[in-house]
TrEMBL record, chain B:
Protein's recorded name: Polysulfide reductase NrfD
InterPro entries membership: Electron_transfer_protein (IPR052049), NrfD-like (IPR005614)
UniProt region (Disordered), positions on chain: 1-38
Record field: transmembrane: 65-84, 96-117, 137-155, 167-187, 202-222
Keywords: Cell membrane, Membrane, Transmembrane, Transmembrane helix
Protein topology in the membrane: Multi-pass membrane protein
UniProt family annotation: Belongs to the NrfD family.
Biased amino acid composition, Basic and acidic residues: 1-18
Gene3D superfamilies reported in the protein's UniProt record: Formate dehydrogenase/DMSO reductase domain
Subcellular location: Cell membrane
Amino acid sequence: MSGLVGRNLLAGPEPHVAEDAGYADAPPRMGFFTDTSVCIGCKACEVACKEWNAVPEDGLEFTGMSYDNTQGLGADTWRHVAFIEQDKPVGNADSGVRWLMASDVCKHCTHAACLDVCPTGSLFRTEFGTVVVQEDICNGCGYCVPACPYGVIDQRKEDGRVWKCTLCYDRIGDGLEPACAKACPTDSIQFGPLDELRERAAVRVDQLHEMGVEDARLYGHDPEDGVGGDGAFFLLLDEPEVYGLPPDPVVTTRDLPAMWKHAGVAAAALAGGIAALFTVHGRLGGRR
Amino acid sequence: MSTSDVTKDGIEGKRPGRDALIGQGTGKGERRRRRGERAMVPKAEFTSYYGKPVLNPPVWQAADIAGYFFLGGLAGAGSVLAAGADLTGRRKAARALKVSSLVAIAGSAAALIHDLGRPARFYNMMRVMKPTSPMSMGSWLLAAYGPAAGAAAVLDVTGLFKPLGRAATLGAAALGPAVASYTAVLASDTAVPAWHDGYRELPLVFVGSAAAAASGMALLAAPVRETAPMRSAAVFGAGLELAAAKLMERRLGMVAEPYREGTGGRLIRVAEVLSVAGAAGGALLGGRSRIAAALSGAALLAGSACTRFGVFHAGMQSAKDPKYTVVPQRERADARDTAKTGNG
Ligand code: SF4
Ligand code: SF4
């Protein structure tokens, strides 16, 4: 399996995800660029996603912690708008308080741990390079849930299967943009070919730096990162963990060849150890 | 004619949207650059989003999955011991271990299926063979091991087809170590910090625990005159388990906390006491007294179960607290940044 790492199928940059998954004539890889600097926290994306994908209600809870009562991504929340109030100004602004708002979503990782560990083949790579669950196959083993380094995919209790963002597989196949991007009034959520989005994001982050917003940074854009780059990446105004994102996620299967090796050593130790003990003790009542 | 600046395309034909100049302020008083300042003040605490976990914790039930780890180990190591007992003329011990392996593996399969969100779709596990999924490999492993262990037990008890029984016994013994160790990979191949980061030692903890459990079963179920090798195996297993666990805790640093604290930590401590008591009791007294052997065997079995439940809960704790995800990753990212900018 280390051959897979060499060919970048388990970790590292992988420019042709769909082709490597077996699509001969794949369209360009599609993704999201979520520019949180223009997010106004209206949650239109959350609503549009629920409407289009018929996602059930995810608990009408009042958290009391902020304007965010959704709290996080899960089986019934495929877009989640985080809300953070901080005692510091944005860029050159004069006011001492800033609000950070960010719409989180499945990252459609280049190396998606959820997909790697799925034992049924329910999770699959689409021709657009996105990661989608086939609900007619999922048997609810739950393995993908702790495998995801971002805490995205989760099990729907009353249903038993797992659910997450499909990057509106049904819409993009028809040339439409995903419901959340369509609904976003400020274009904080931008949908398009990943290459194009990455270029646009680089320009945007430079523009913000020039303006004095030095906190601006991209997250998940780099094909060299621990998951080979995200299909859905972000422009953030603070450290990722402030938004509930992992600062340096790594796809767990990067280490899988090493894991099997250690398990092999352990298995050999067990077999060898017990064989040695029986050899030492010899036949019952007889000579060795 | 309208004199308003607002047109259909936005204000004066401009659409601010994605190009909005946020943070521009009024332009008064350039704020000083803050670069450099940040790096000089080491972060005392880690940041999180209202203390919410970064990961979605496993949806697995402790009784099912930790039980599955325990039973799989008992079955797998039991098959190895059974073959050893068979080959060295320890007939009763061999039979007892074969039966226990069959019961254990049936129980572990039942636990696994019970834990599925859609148990009726269990057969989808056999839909593909996927080397990147330890659960897929494990399912195929069980599909090979289960019948072998079953045949070994049934043919021994019934005395039918002796050569076939021998082949099944050896086959189960060949697959047994894999059954006992692969569950560690199953747990490690997740983003759960306490499981993933422990991937080097966890397989040794698991096979050690498995050897201790199977030896305990032999001490419990076989006559004293046959169990001398199993008493040694108990010492070997418990020793391996404890040594590997200590090594893991040392290497993991702060991520090892859940192995020491909370439910996970408590179970691990109880497991240590039970395993040491069981192994020592078996070695010192198990050769003389049937009762001492049985008590030691029970302690070994209970110790192994506590280890598995302890590891399970430690993983859950590490997934539910953002600290274990954020702190090591932040350190890694900062170290990389420092290296890149040259101590900068
Ligand atoms: S973010 Fe999580 S759920 Fe989405 S593709 Fe990556 S691993 Fe899978
Ligand atoms: S819960 Fe469903 S999608 Fe997730 S790993 Fe299991 S079978 Fe695959």
